[in-house]
């Protein structure tokens, strides 16, 4: 790699290095099974769109799906057409948007804070435990993060340089963000822009007018509104009601799908998501506040804290929600590290070493709880690069330059992330109940489910799962289709008396979920 980098033109050497490091992290384990609930539904929705040729109305299991707007479906669909339907093709464009997010952050910071801050900000992102995982998931969040970040960067560019092309780009990104995740992609950046203008004392009519709001609204409407109007018409308003009320207002006001938690959980997601360099976040926030006269630091400070606070107030909390704060906090951390000449962060390095040990310990106990994965315990040794890197950083920080410490931490955790995704997560994915149960299912027969089922089944079976709501309906289905299976969960079946006509042929707990997948078959044909 070193000889390859030496041969590259100096102006692009650092971006190329950043992309190479990112590819190592982001592509690790990309071909692993799709088994996470949201990934499975998104990947299957795009597959059904391609199968039906209906690119307006999204569906899952051949029924209307109101969870998300369509942009990520369109990119997955394009990937399916180019590469075929698979888990890695469903994730392909998520990785692409991760690379784009990394590059725009690098060039934005380089312009406003210098090349050293830009390089360190990029290392903060690449090294973080969540960044690589986040950008190889078949979900809309990677697309949202790119357009969210780009819209705010372009806003800052337009404001500082009175660049009308940057302003138009901002509206384009806001519109594409709205097609990625909905109103959050417009309302939250808009609030950040307003708050920054207020705190920087630039909230004036002339400033707002300089952002070309009328032209911007026309651009936004031309890009974002047509699909929303078409899906509203095609579904007679059902998609509109489900998406805006159930999956936006209700998700903010009340806990959805058990994803609740305390007010501090959003901050915890940020700290763990940006680990290991989040150990410097408190000091970086203090540094930015003391230097808030520097516009770009105030801007990044406002953006990062606003995103975190917003999702702290939301009733539904997930790690992906706070991810749009990562580029802005990375800017603050990168700026702090670039300004510091000597490695004086002993307390932070002690915390880093302790948390690195706790990560391996937590992995050990997590595998101990999930009994079917105890065979993976020896592979926890692959997480040792984090402990080793943190230990050497602490031991050598007074003897070596800060640059050495930063690179030691960064490369240690890049290696840890690679091993975690490519080996540990990949092996866990292979043991998910959907993959293991597929040989028991006759794909030439109809397939049914009783109450709940793992959403990965439609993606791998490529057919509709018939829903059964009573024990009698299970009996009738198995009698009419003796070689067919009924998918369910142990909880759904706990009070069901099916022993006279059906038998369990498969049972396994889902990966890190409070759900156990069960397959039933006609008692007379169980073999």
Automatic annotation (TrEMBL):
The entry's keywords: Cell membrane, Glycosyltransferase, Membrane, Transferase, Transmembrane, Transmembrane helix
**In the UniProt record, does the keyword Transmembrane helix occur?**
yes
Which regions span the lipid bilayer? Answer: 12-37, 88-109, 129-156, 168-199, 211-230, 263-284, 296-315, 321-338, 350-367, 379-396, 408-429
Q: Any idea where this protein resides?
A: Cell membrane
**GO molecular function per UniProt:** pentosyltransferase activity
* Organism domain of life: Bacteria
Task: Please tell me where this protein is predominantly located.
Answer: membrane
Q: Name one GO biological process term.
A: response to iron(III) ion
Where does the record locate the signal sequence feature?
none
Record's PANTHER family?
Answer: MANNOSYLTRANSFERASE YKCB-RELATED, UNDECAPRENYL PHOSPHATE-ALPHA-4-AMINO-4-DEOXY-L-ARABINOSE ARABINOSYL TRANSFERASE
Name it. Answer: Phospholipid carrier-dependent glycosyltransferase
The uppermost taxa in this organism's lineage are: Bacteria, Pseudomonadati, Bacteroidota, Bacteroidia, Marinilabiliales
